[in-house]
Please model this.
Amino acid sequence: MKISFHGAAGCVTGSNYLIETDNFSFIVDCGMFQGSKTLKENNYKNFAYNPADVDFALLTHAHIDHTGLLPKLVKHGFNGPVYATAPTVDLLRYLLPDSAHIQEIEVMQKNRRNERKGLEPISPIYDETDAANAIALMKSVERHETFEPVAGCRVTFHNAGHVLGSSFIEIELEDKGKKRKIIFSGDLGEDDKPILNDPDRFSETDFLVVESTYGNRNREKQTKEGRLQQLAEVFKRAEKRGGKIIIPAFALERTQDLLHDILILKKQNKISGIKVVVDSPLATDITKVFLKYPECYDEDATEIMEKMGGLFDHPDFRFTNSVEESKALNHEKRIVIMSASGMCDAGRIKHHLKHNLWNPANTVLFVGYQAEGTLGRLLVEGAKTVRIHGEEVTTGAQIEQITGYSGHADQSGLLKWLSGVKEVRQQIFVVHGEPESADAFAVKLNEELGFRAVAPRMGEVFELLADQSAAAAAAPVAEKVKEAKAPEAVAPAVDSYNLYAQLTLQLADFMRNSKDENIRREKLKKLLAEI
Ligand SMILES: [Zn+2]
Ligand SMILES: [Zn+2]
Model:
């Protein structure tokens, strides 16, 4: 019995793990690589295994970095059932076609550039037909109900409290007369996050594959009251400035979190009658999926639903669909516009920023993590000018940030989740983190909690049946049977393209702000000499 790591190992995105026994094989998650251009190139490479040989797939949750390459898997021959919770399947009905659409547009733009350069055209990773074929293979499962996809494999989904439908998956396997239990954490949410119930816990396992997005960091602790207070204050300051509030928000979860919190503040009369517009067709569709699953709501959300008739029902809330409706928002003055993407690297939010960022009356509110190299990160870090759709735009608007909305548990949250665990008989694999984060968390688990933990890298394979001999007790139990690729083959989070973009922006700033011709000439000469 072997496990191999094909994504989210030494990086955050591209979650994909393969388990092989003598009798069957399956994958957990099949995510897309996101972030730097170098990381994204992984999406175009062949799978390291033959998709046609995989018997079934399990999905922890709907996020594209866990599901986005499933249509590619199907395109390349996978034809087995894909098990996920009902909300995850419903969300993917919107997310996978959307992802296919994004691929097709990106490739179209790339090919236009390639043609001008005399290069061969490339084809998209997959298209909407492949996405539809993947969705056709999905089977929804109930949480806490054990099922048997094949003989010798029992699977149970538990709540991971990260996004609607998100689960950690417990798998009991039998191979060569031996039994092994392995738990995949998927992504884990914090306790007390809006709308969703707190994550379930588990008490024992042989192996655990655990995420480590914030494995080496603790965020400032934020109570629910503190988060609401901060949001109310941003709205108050924005009211004084008199303009719009632009909120870049992911279509899944963050948009609904914000609507939920704004609704609470409206109910408490802590914010004025300002109208809220969700300007993202995908977010609108996803919000409808939330309404279908009230059994996933925590006490607060249930109370709102019962008292107000619906979780997102308010006369001040509006959902746009057409491009015309979206454009018409340019002429409105005092509104909240919530739009995707959350890091401002694509989608309608870029248009809203282009039209509103210059204006000091406006406020831009960030409520999510901004990865390095994204437009959102530049704004949060205080860039005075940014480039949007090839145009330079000055930052006049007030930039605000609330950190209480993370979808991921931080280090203390992860440790809290693990605190009830009585026994990990074999080993913990730390995944889904930048190398510093995953390695630091593995050390923490080893040294402070006495677990045996390693942070595998892409392509590594571990044998899971090797018995723990007394001599090997101090060493990791799972024998590594294949080493990772050379470190330089693993894509960095910030690649040369990110640095190039940063350099061009800084150069433009320098030329604008530095008035002395001699200094300008000398600096540029030096730079040219270096290149
Ligand atoms: Zn996730
Ligand atoms: Zn993830």
